[in-house]
Amino acid sequence: SLGTQTDYRDGEAQTDPYSPEYIVTSGSVPELLTLATLTWGRGLPAGLAEVEMIERAREKRAWEAALPAMDSPSQITKRKKMMDEMERKEWVFREQEIEELQEVQLEVLKKLLRRREESQNELNAKRLHDQWQNHQKAKEEKIKKIQHGCALLLRKLIAKRKNVLGKLERRGIFKEYTDFSARTDAPLSRIGFSPDNHSDCYVVKNFYLNTFAGLCELEASLPRSVTQVKIKAPKPNRLTKSGFLRRSARLEMDLALVHQ
User: Fold this and answer.
1) What does the record list as coiled-coil region(s) (predicted)?
2) pTM, two decimal places
3) Given a cut of 60, is residue 81 above it in pLDDT?
């Protein structure tokens, strides 16, 4: 299955290349043993630096084989001169290696500095944006406050202009209730709470009052005495206790006579 192939794939089961045991015969130094310090992941597979190291090792072995024997003073002088030249070459090569390593370190340091500068620039840009947003918010609040004050002053000036002479006027209650544009019928919301703003909360929404089925059910639940009212006509009592005719009866007689 796919799960089994994922668990036991070749990539996870791969190990380091096998290095067999070896035996060196006495009196022989194989060239391959010079690479014994290189292992998989640490020099192997060989790159350009490893190839250059191998070439230098070969050149050094050839140079050691070409050194003159120390059997005469002239040969000793020649040998010392060759060794001094080789030492100078080694120092030059070492200096080149140090310079290359310093260049690599310098490039890494430049990348780190560039990355830190970019992150610092992003942080500064974010801080500037936040400050700009705060200033914009403060500016809008200040503008809103100024506009509110300006509207208040304009209303005061308009009210003052209506009464230029400064005469005191009495409150006209009849005028307030007859004028539908007055504050009584149309109050301003800025002065206080207007009940018309939330008048929907006082609307009664009832199933028994808003639907026909509810009305029928409500009517069926009421007693018969509510729907079928029996009215007893009162008997006319036209005479008083003393035997005289009441004034209401006399007025009814007069109205009936006038009507005829």
Assistant:
1) none
2) 0.40
3) yes
